[in-house]
Design goal:
The structure holds 2 protein chains of 2 kinds.
Chain A (H helix, E strand, L loop, with lengths): L2 H6 L11 H6 L6 H12 L7 H9 L5 H5 L6 H14 L7 H12 L4 H16 L2 H8 L7 H6 L11 H4 L3 E2 L1 H8 L9 H4 L7 H9 L2 H7 L4 H8 L12 E5 L4 H5 L1 H13 L2 E4 L9 H5 L3 H15 L6 E4 L2 H7 L2 H4 L7 H10 E3 H7 L15 E3 L3 H6 L4 H9 L5 E2 L14 H4 L1 H18 L3 E3 L3 H13 L5 E3 L1 H11 L2 H7 L1
Helix pairs in contact in A: 4-6, 12-18, 14-15, 18-30, 24-26, 28-29
Chain B lengths: L2 H14 L5 E2 L2 H4 L16 E3 L4 H13 L4 E4 L16 E4 L6 E5 L4 E4 L5 H9 L3 E2 L12 H7 L6 H4 L6 E8 L4 E5 L11 H5 L7 E9 L1 E2 L3 E9 L2 H13 L6 E6 H11 L8 E9 L1 H17 L4 E4 L3 H12 L1 H4 L6 E4 L9 H14 L3 E7 L4 E8 L4 H20 L18 H4 L2 H14 L16 H5 L1
Parallel strand pairs in B: 2-4, 3-4
Antiparallel strand pairs in B: 1-2, 5-6, 6-10, 7-11, 8-9, 8-10, 12-14, 12-15, 13-14, 13-17, 16-18, 17-18
Helix pairs in contact in B: 1-3, 8-10, 8-13, 9-11, 13-14
The chains are: A mainly alpha, B alpha+beta.
């Protein structure tokens, strides 16, 4: 435990009203400053890393709302991970089924991407073959332990095809144009002509420097922005590759929402990015870091860096709030590793959430509506808004889609109870938070809920299904992709 | 109190309350050992969460039976250690008593329980187009009970006064466990001593507040927010003194020095300018008056040397700026590990002198002191940015603090404008009071709580002998 971080907390209490567990119980023990006081007591030798501490640290959602609220700038994310690692190191959480499940999930399945896909494949077969409904009807589930029976309906619907079957390892805007949207080329705009190739001097240099967009902006070679300013924004720019970005396909996202990954790739292609998507990607390690397995998290971080080679890319794109938040901390995670410390920092610098990246490169607004989706509301993934401080960008993207009425969601940044595997480890609290979320969603009268994290997506989707609601959950990027697909390209040119 | 008595008391509490209303496990009660004050902590025997006045009274009676101290606590945001538990005490935490019982739009009053969050009172008032002005910086989590017990101030104190000015009646449980109602809905009431005023600001040493009748006023129709930047703290102080001398009473005249500006901006990112001193000024009321006052204030600021005066773009921006200012104290924790906040207050005509003295003191003792505060009230918050583990430096902090307090009193000021005495400023209190008035404190405490069971050791140490013999 880093004492200086613990000491940073001056227990002013500003975190209390934003902490879902404190608001639920009104007991200080379940609050950020209560948990930090406990950590401090341990650091001071006044308390032990014991079972009650373990329970408390696993009661914390890790939603990081307290980090947003904390004027003193306490790095609670770091404390939380270190505390969970301490708990695991001291074996303080206690024995039981937990050990088996941790071994299976954290140490085995989520360490091996191929194995994970195999499990996904099995689950898909179970769901698609009709076996699932058969089993549900047969009453066979009653033979399973209660926990498993409760979990069965929460398992995500697995996609027929995973990301690598939908996205080729390298796709460039030009190809997309040929493949998806045959169109007539108009002459290149002057502004865009300098940097249309991925390997022009300026972009290559910018890539090495690690701040491609800033550099490009300063030197005035940012095609879209420049074109906008000069009023020469044309379709001619479509199909030009300006950036080379890596796309992270995630674990749950890959199995349950591979279509969102395809949408992300399409949106990137539409915005002049060549998309590099390695077929077999390791887990980002967020699950491990949040569950006290920092060494495994480091191992995965190194694998990820080796696979993506950040030095060859302008940006590495994540479309899952939870993963992104962790992915941006590789520098901190690998700070002690001389071989990776620098690459980790470069990785962090280039790691961008998809919404963040699109706004940064001044994305092309679509001119068509994605279809029957309004009214819409936006639920913020905790690790996107509190972890990554990305709040305005997703709203900006949604608001750029024509004919979409967005209604603000009350407590939009309040945890929905998914919180990684919290809905599995603490089903009761999770259900309370889900009810709170659904109540606010209901009040907006929205038929579509946009959110940018697979955990939230599943949690809210399951909640809506359970309460018989017709509303659907979509990723903002999927809505944008739909809008692009409906945008006739010649129309875009005239409107800009 | 012996261990056996303690465990018998806890058994009786267990019989009285539901399981979730009583905490005794060390892990559960640890976070009730401190409030928002640096370096002060204590360990209670138990923490209880009563739901109603009757339960409070019953707990107080039990504590009396076992001669055990009681420490009342809301959400523990205090800044003087006022609710830090004495050893073996019972902490009565009011957070479950959080109902708004009545809003009387005929008499413009609201009856609330002590655990209601301050901000919720203003929000509930706003629904009727009414206004509850006191706005301590911690209002989004502080409880009204704690505000009354400490007579809390806030950013709008200049024009609207402090918590005391909005309390019309109180229900209190006294040390013997009986329930008393003091005050009422009458605007004028001179029947007997104003007993409710004795309990306001008594920091839990005279009784436990279980209901509060709040006075509300009409919500101001317009508001204008100005930000003025200055090349020196003295010029900002001069602006404040000049505005008051020009007989303008804006609702807010807040001040931040360079260090504070940097920390606040680091946290809130609201675009605060880079300068030596910043004034955050707000006037509210009738639109015509607001416009007039805003213009006059701007002119005075410029005359006093402001480099720039800007207005908030809209309501949202104004709220953003006020919220940023409210984070000042906590945001200062970004610089050094320990943040010790003081609360020296002087007559407004002495502001320039006080500000200069604080600057000089920081230099003299080689310390980092950031200053911000409610300059319009003469209420400054010189904040020591230090490290409690560095004993040498802490000694210098002690000396500097004493020097600042002495000078404050010399200027006709007070050691605490709004945070209360609690534990933190107890030893400085005798310098502000003369022997006679200091003894009066003991007399009042001794007659209301003769066995010194209510928050003992806060504000001052009660000398029990005169009471026992008298």
């Amino acid at each position: 435990m880093d004492y200086s971080v613990v000491q940073q907390c001056m227990h002013c209490g500003m975190c209390l009203p934003t902490c879902p567990t404190y608001v639920e119980t009104k007991r200080e023990r379940n609050s950020p400053r209560g948990r930090i006081a406990w950590m401090r007591a341990i650091a001071d030798g006044e308390a032990e890393v014991d079972k009650p501490f373990a329970d408390e640290i696993y009661d914390c959602l890790g939603c990081l709302a307290c980090v947003t609220a904390c004027p003193a700038g306490v790095d609670y994310a770091q404390l939380f991970e270190a505390a969970r690692a301490d708990v695991e190191e001291h074996d303080a959480a206690g024995p039981g089924q937990r050990v088996f499940w941790r071994w299976l999930a954290v140490k085995t399945i989520f360490m091996h991407p191929r194995l994970l896909r195999l499990v996904g494949r099995g689950l898909y077969a179970y769901q698609a073959s009709g076996l699932q409904s058969l089993v549900r009807k047969s009453g066979l589930l009653r033979l399973l332990p209660k926990r498993l029976v409760d979990l069965e309906p929460q398992a995500p619907d697995i996609c027929k095809r995973f990301s690598h079957q939908l996205i080729r390892p390298v796709e460039s805007p030009t190809e997309m144009e040929r493949r998806l949207q045959p169109m007539t080329r108009t002459p290149e705009s002057e502004a865009g002509s300098q940097t249309h190739s991925t390997d022009t001097d300026s972009t290559a240099k910018a890539r090495r420097s690690g701040t491609p967009t800033a550099k490009a902006r300063r030197s005035g070679t940012h095609p879209t922005a420049e074109a906008r300013r000069s009023g020469t924004h044309r379709t001619a720019e479509a199909g030009r590759s300006v950036y080379r970005v890596g796309l992270l396909t995630g674990c749950v996202q890959d199995l349950a929402f591979s279509d969102i990954n395809r949408d992300t790739a399409d949106v990137l292609l539409h915005n002049n990015c060549t998309v590099v998507t390695p077929a077999v990607q390791p887990c980002c390690g967020s699950l491990h870091a949040h569950n006290g397995e920092l060494e495994l998290a480091k191992k995965l971080a190194r694998q990820q860096i080796n696979l993506f080679k950040p030095e060859t890319l302008d940006a590495i794109i994540s479309n899952a709030g939870g993963c992104g938040s962790h992915l941006k901390t590789y520098g901190h995670l690998l700070a002690e590793d001389p071989a990776y410390a620098e690459r980790g920092k470069e990785w962090d610098r280039k790691l961008k959430d998809i919404h963040e990246w699109l706004v940064e490169i001044d994305f092309t607004p679509p001119t068509a509506s994605p279809g029957d989706v309004e009214p819409i509301t936006y639920h913020e993934s905790c690790h996107l808004c509190h972890g990554q401080k990305i709040r305005l960008q997703p709203r900006k993207i949604l608001d750029a889609i024509p004919n979409l009425t967005r209604v603000e969601l009350k407590e939009s940044d309040w945890c929905c109870g998914s919180a990684g595997i919290y809905n599995i480890t603490r089903p009761e609290t999770s259900a309370k938070l889900l009810d709170r979320k659904l109540e606010h969603i209901e009040a907006t009268g929205s038929t579509t809920i946009a959110t940018s994290n697979p955990g939230c997506h599943l949690q809210i989707q399951n909640g809506l299904k359970k309460s018989g609601k017709k509303a659907i959950v979509r990723h903002p990027i999927s809505l944008l992709a739909d809008a692009y697909r409906k945008t006739p390209l010649h129309q875009e040119s005239t409107s800009a | 109190m012996g261990t056996t008595t303690e465990s018998t008391l806890i058994d009786e509490l267990r019989a009285l309350l539901a399981a979730n209303q009583l905490l005794t496990d060390p892990a559960d009660i640890r976070p009730y050992g401190f409030d928002g004050t640096a370096g002060l902590k204590g360990t209670a025997a138990a923490v209880v969460f009563p739901n109603c006045t009757e339960e409070v009274a019953a707990i107080v009676k039990l504590a009396a039976k076992y001669d055990t101290a009681i420490v009342t606590r809301g959400t523990g945001t205090g800044l003087s250690g006022g609710c830090v538990p004495s050893e073996h005490s019972i902490v009565i935490c009011t957070v479950e008593m959080n109902r708004i019982l009545e809003t009387d739009t005929q008499n413009l009053t609201m009856l609330v329980e002590p655990g209601v969050i301050t901000k919720e009172i203003d929000e509930a008032s706003a629904a009727h187009n009414l206004f509850y002005p006191p706005d301590p910086s911690s209002m989004k989590i502080s409880t009204i009970g704690g505000n009354v017990a400490n007579n809390s101030g806030g950013l709008r104190g200049l024009k609207y006064g402090v918590t005391r000015d909005y309390v019309m009646g109180l229900e209190v449980v006294t040390a013997d466990g009986t329930v008393q109602w003091l005050g009422g809905k009458c605007v004028k009431d001179v029947a007997g001593y104003s007993l409710r005023d004795v309990f306001i600001g008594s920091e839990g040493t005279l009784g436990l507040i279980t209901k509060i009748l709040i006075k509300l006023i009409p919500r101001p129709k317009a508001k204008s927010t100005l930000l003025a930047t200055f090349p020196s703290m003295q010029q900002a102080a001069e602006t404040v003194s000049s505005i008051i001398a020009a007989q303008i009473i804006p609702c807010t005249l807040e001040f931040l020095d360079r260090k504070t500006i940097r920390c606040v901006e680091d946290f809130a990112k609201v675009g605060l300018p880079d300068c030596e001193a910043l004034l955050f000024m707000e006037t509210d009321g009738h639109p015509v008056v607001v416009a007039e006052e805003a213009e006059a204030m701007e002119a005075i600021a410029r005359k006093c040397g402001a480099t720039e005066v800007t207005r908030a773009k809209d309501d949202f921006h104004a709220i953003q700026l006020a919220t940023a200012r409210r984070s000042a104290f906590s945001a200062l924790a970004r610089i050094r590990p320990t943040t010790i906040l003081e609360d020296a207050t002087v007559p407004r005509s002495k502001l320039v002198e006080m500000v200069s003295f604080i600057e000089a003191t920081a230099k003299k003792y080689d310390l980092q002191i950031a200053t911000f505060g409610h300059m319009g009230d003469g209420n400054l918050h010189p904040t020591f940015l230090t490290d409690e583990r560095d004993h040498k430096e802490m000694e210098r902090v002690e000396e500097a603090m004493k020097a600042i307090f002495d000078f404050t009193i010399q200027l006709g000021g007070t050691i605490t404008g709004e945070h209360g005495v609690g534990l933190a400023k107890r030893k400085f209190l005798p310098t502000q009071f003369d022997a006679g008035s200091y003894a009066l404190l003991s007399k009042i405490k001794g007659s209301l709580d003769p066995h010194n069971r209510l928050n003992p050791g806060k504000i001052f140490d009660l000398d029990l002998r005169p009471v026992d013999h008298g």
